[in-house]
Amino acid sequence: LWPLDKIEGLDNPMLSEERAVLTESLSEAKRKAKLEIQALFDLNVDPEARIFVSLGRLVRQKGVDLLADVAPWLLLKFPKAQFVLVGPLGDGFGH
């Protein structure tokens, strides 16, 4: 892998008219959502953590093997990183 100086998040690609209407600041909504995700998945509660999410079938076809390969390196290089993998454990198409 190439050397990374830092990890940055990506903006939501959803169209602005499709987004939920916020009743609080975006930064406060993100803070609350991060704490909720960390609690839900029994992660270390850390407001400074970067959470990496993969949503899809947990099969090689979707690259879950690549995530498994890179996870130890990423967690060693960025100790505050957290992984959340969400999806079914494969199907007849991805085994």
Top keywords for this entry?
single chain; 95 residues; alpha+beta; two-stranded parallel sheet
Please state the CA-atom Rg, rounded to the nearest Å: 16 Å
Order of helices and strands: HEHE
| Unreliable parts | none
Which structural class matches the secondary elements?
alpha+beta
Count of DSSP strands? 2
Write the layout of secondary structure elements.
Blueprint: H1 26-40, E1 50-55, H2 64-77, E2 81-86
Parallel strand pairs: 1-2
Describe this structure in words.
With 95 residues, this protein is an alpha+beta fold. It is globular and about 40 Å long. The chain is built from 2 helices and 2 strands. A two-stranded parallel sheet has the order 1-2. The longest helix has 15 residues, at 26-40. 31% of the residues lie in helices and 13% in strands. The model has no long low-confidence stretch (mean pLDDT 85). The relative contact order is 0.17.
Give a short synopsis of this structure.
With 95 residues, the chain is α+β, with helices and mostly antiparallel strands. 31% of the residues lie in helices and 13% in strands.
